[in-house]
Design brief:
- The structure holds two protein chains of two kinds.
- By secondary structure, chain A is of the alpha/beta class.
- Helices cover about 35% and strands about 25% of the residues of chain A.
- In chain A, strands 13, 16, 17, 18, 19, 20 and 21 form a seven-stranded mixed sheet that branches. In chain A, strands 6-7-8-3-9-10 form a six-stranded mixed sheet, sandwiched between helices.
- Chain A is globular and about 75 Å long.
- The two termini of chain A are about 50 Å apart.
- Chain B is an all-alpha fold.
- Chain B has a domain of about 250 residues: ABC transporter involved in vitamin B12 uptake, BtuC.
- Helices cover about 70% and strands about 5% of the residues of chain B.
- A two-stranded antiparallel ribbon of chain B has the order 1-2.
- In chain B, helix 2 packs across helix 12.
- Chain B starts with a strand and ends in a 9-residue tail after the last strand.
- The chains are: A alpha/beta, B mainly alpha.
- The interface between A and B is medium-sized, with 39 and 26 residues.
């Protein structure tokens, strides 16, 4: 049976933006549709409407030419529409089977058989009786997919499914999705990764600022053409000059760095060793939750360690706190901009004052030197093209991109010797990502160093001179980036170090 | 169909709402107070007048108001240091009593002596006593990960029982016919009175000085900035490199010292000796004052006056309406309750929808 889904004149407005502006789309089973767009383009809003989480202000949805009224996800499921979210909703301590039978009224035995059939049919390598917490991210996602398949869906929506997967897991996922599609499931695949659209999808709908920009066959598109549609302007691609002869002038050396956490939700750091030379960018790849956050905090001094385990410019600094490390002109840019790097309720200049490099002298004699801080902030706003001139503005009113420019600017304005950053472009739009990448390349050009911890492999390949991967708190050997393929890095991220 | 009332999260907290919320809380407290009096069989307006107006209608009443507001203000200033940094010191009452014990002990040492140096020594030792007593939960929190709410609260009873033991035992007045009280302090150990015939004493200057000092620290110094950051996000404070443990110890010391000073003010002011009930739970009531004053030194001045009035009102109600004095605590509870409820308005705005949108399908 063929499924057809028609979205007609859908609009949804939020107080400060039009998330969906008169969207019209017709989808038929047998194909995989990509819904492509930057963060904030409105693609999540659209699929949430399709899954009944949000009700549109205007417009209609037709399933097989029948009008569809979706007041809740329950209605969507009744109409055989399923969705796999970016973040898993599984009970970690329950087994796979227990998770799957939770919300079903079918008898347990017949359901178990059905699940076993699905697992066999698609070669899912999952033990039904293991607790979910022992599964990898890829396996957890499979559990979520099985949960959808039990309901024999006609429509399957996948929301940015590869953000937590390794290269290998992504490949497996794509094979499964193609199978589902052949069997007549209509698949809507949401992403902002252009490569995935090209390798997986048949048709692509591009969204920008709430509007549907184009619908086209993927075979007629190239990465560049899709990128231009998605961003709405031509962006020149950033390229890093890789010098053949890098200096051997060592700047920072990590020796047997260890951390045992008392918190069961943190990852222990085990025997980490690496070094970074002047003018070099070391990339540390990894799937999120493998100890990146802990490693970052150890490098910044939020977690202290053995004094000799971090040696900067021949001086041991393992015991120093972040403020003391800043004296050596080391700068830190954490992943979480809103709860870690800044305080949204505070004004721009107050957030700038958080980061008191010795030369800035914001607090002479224990008193707040407000004029100095404000002048300094003003300079950051201008130099790093932040979209405001008002240093009294609370940072909660800055967009993600502008906030990151401010925060990176705060780190870089005193031209530090080493910048340690963690997912610096996470959640930003393409324009801002471009700006940050250019800025990071400039740092290397000035013979300053970077440690780039990132979950975005494309970014790592673009920016780093040397690369390694972190898995469960251990770090792989460090390679020259040019010597490593995507597949190899994927294996390293999955923990296969040899 | 949508609902007629819509609640939206606020993007920003404006200053006017920050002021409006306590005012609204006070109005609602008066309203429900009127209702309570009505059900007790009184004329509501008349009862409110007896509670809130009569007590401060004359000069003596006004001096009593300032007298009660002084310790509340001093303690609340100290507590605002703790609460701004998310350190929940609930034990100011204990720190007040312990400060009273230490300074009272010093005062008793000088019971038959006169000299200008005696009062300053008493004041200093009182502050020191309070600070040391507050340091106990602070050290337990920083080095043993205990919950300061529990430890500081439990220490209140330790201080109370210690005072109890001292006034019936070793420190009891030898000529006091076994009453549970100490000797009267000498005149040099008493706070100077400001006016003949009124009980208001020099402690009020200590309060005003602390208000000015804390305002300066909060808004003009690096320490104040660090406290603000730690209060808003500990994670960010750690990222900035502020020393968390040191800050915790410091704010407890400050708040304990303030509570101790309040204790000194009481025993060397209106009381003049040590006995069991040196504080009508000022230490607990000051928690309400701190929040009613928005953790702001100027706000705390007004809040301490308002809450002090509930003490006087309760006495007046006991005399004129023959209701128990604890009605004052009902009013204090109501204020805190309504303040917390009004704070909902800080973070959310309520919209009344006149026309409704209908989803078109």
């Amino acid at each position: 049976m063929e499924t057809s889904l028609k979205i007609s004149n859908i609009s949804k407005a939020y107080p400060d933006c039009l998330a969906n502006d008169n969207i019209n789309l017709e989808l038929k089973s047998g194909k995989i549709y990509a819904l492509l767009g930057e963060n904030g383009a409105g693609k999540s809003t659209l699929v949430k409407i399709l899954f009944g989480i949000i009700q549109p202000d205007k417009g209609k949805i037709f399933l097989n030419n029948q009008i569809l009224k979706l007041n809740s996800p329950r209605d969507a499921k009744k109409n055989k529409i399923s969705m796999v979210f970016q973040h898993f909703s599984l009970f970690e301590t329950l087994s796979v089977l227990e998770n799957l039978i939770l919300d079903s009224s079918e008898p347990k035995k017949s359901l178990e058989n059905k699940i076993q059939d699905i697992i066999n049919k698609y070669n899912f390598n999952i033990d039904l009786y293991t607790p979910v917490l022992n599964l990898s991210a890829g396996q957890k996602q499979k559990v979520e997919i099985i949960r959808c398949l039990i309901k024999n869906p006609d429509v399957l929506i996948m929301d940015e499914p590869t953000s937590v997967l390794t290269e290998q897991e992504t490949k497996e996922l794509f094979i499964s999705l193609k199978k589902f599609s052949k069997e007549g499931i209509l698949i809507i695949y949401i992403t902002h990764k252009l490569k995935e659209v090209i390798t997986l999808c048949d048709e692509v709908a591009v969204m920008r600022k709430g509007k549907l920009i184009s619908i086209s066959k993927v075979s007629n598109e190239k990465i560049e053409s899709l990128a231009n549609k998605m961003i709405g302007q031509n962006l020149k691609i950033v390229r890093k000059k890789r010098l053949e002869e890098k200096s051997n002038d060592q700047l920072i050396k990590i020796v047997n760095l260890n951390y045992k956490s008392a918190n069961p939700f943190e990852v222990n750091i085990k025997d980490i060793n690496f070094e970074v030379n002047r003018g070099e960018c070391l990339g540390i790849a990894g799937i999120s939750g493998n100890g990146q956050s802990e490693l970052f905090q150890m490098l910044s001094g939020e977690i202290t360690s053995e004094n000799n385990s971090i040696v900067f410019d021949n001086r041991p600094i393992g015991k120093l706190n972040p403020q003391e490390r800043r004296k050596y002109l080391i700068a830190f840019s954490p992943e979480d901009r809103l709860t870690h790097a800044s305080i949204p309720q505070m004004k721009i200049f107050e957030n700038v004052a958080l980061n008191n490099f010795k030369s800035s002298d914001f607090f002479k004699g224990g008193l707040i030197n407000e004029k100095k801080i404000k002048d300094h902030s003003q300079r950051i706003l201008t130099k790093f093209s932040v979209n405001t001139e008002n240093v009294e503005l609370k940072t909660q009113f800055l967009s993600g991109g502008n906030l990151q420019k401010l925060l990176i600017g705060r780190e870089l304005i005193t031209s530090p010797n080493l910048l340690i950053c963690f997912n610096p472009t996470w959640g930003l739009d393409v324009g801002a990502i471009h700006y940050i990448h250019e800025t990071l390349i400039k740092i290397n050009d000035q013979n300053k160093s970077i440690i780039l911890i990132s979950t975005d492999t494309e970014e790592l390949f673009m920016l780093s001179d040397k690369i390694c991967a972190i898995n469960k708190g251990r770090i792989s050997k460090v390679f020259k980036t040019t010597d490593v393929s995507t597949e190899k890095l994927g294996l390293l991220m999955g923990g296969q170090f040899d | 169909m949508g609902s007629l009332i819509k609640i939206e999260k606020r993007n920003d907290i404006s200053n006017s709402i920050l002021l409006f919320s306590p005012v609204l809380a006070i109005i609602l407290t008066l309203l429900s107070g009127a209702i309570i009096f009505y059900f007790l069989g009184f004329q509501p307006l008349e009862a409110l007048k007896i509670f809130f107006i009569i007590p401060i209608a004359d000069l003596y009443g006004f001096s009593e108001l300032l007298l009660k507001a002084t310790p509340l203000c001093i303690i609340a200033i100290g507590l605002s240091f703790c609460f701004k940094t998310n350190n929940w010191n609930i034990g100011a009452e204990g720190q007040l009593i312990f400060g009273g014990i230490v300074s009272g002990g010093v005062a008793l040492l000088f019971y038959n002596q006169e000299g200008f140096f005696i009062l300053p020594i008493i004041i200093l030792t009182g502050a020191l006593g309070g600070a040391i007593f507050a340091l106990i939960p602070a050290i337990l929190k920083t080095y043993f990960n205990t919950n300061e709410i529990l430890t500081s609260l439990m220490l209140v009873y330790v201080a109370k029982l210690l005072l109890d033991y001292l006034v019936v035992g070793p420190w009891t007045n030898p000529e006091g016919f076994n009453f549970p009280e100490t000797r009267m302090f000498s005149d040099s150990a008493r706070m100077p009175l400001l006016f003949e015939g009124l009980r208001i004493h020099a402690g009020i200057f200590i309060a005003l000085m602390l208000v000015a000092l804390s305002w300066f620290i909060f808004f003009k110094t690096f320490l104040g900035f660090q406290m603000k950051v730690s209060g808003l996000s500990l994670k960010t404070a750690r990222y900035a490199g502020y020393k968390g443990k040191k800050t915790i110890l410091l704010v407890f010391i400050i708040s304990g010292a303030c509570a101790g000073l309040a204790g000194v003010g009481e025993i060397t002011g209106p009381i003049g000796q040590l006995y069991r009930e040196i504080s009508p739970e000022y230490g607990f009531t000051a928690i309400i004052v701190t929040f009613l004053g928005r953790l702001n030194p100027i706000g705390i001045i007004f809040a301490s006056l308002i809450v002090a009035l509930t003490y006087l009102g309760a006495e007046s109600a006991q005399i004129f309406l023959q209701v128990p004095k604890s009605i004052g605590q009902i009013f204090q509870g109501l204020i805190l309750f309504f303040l917390l409820a009004s704070d909902f308005l800080l973070y959310f705005k309520v919209k009344f929808l006149i026309t409704q949108k209908k989803n078109e399908y």
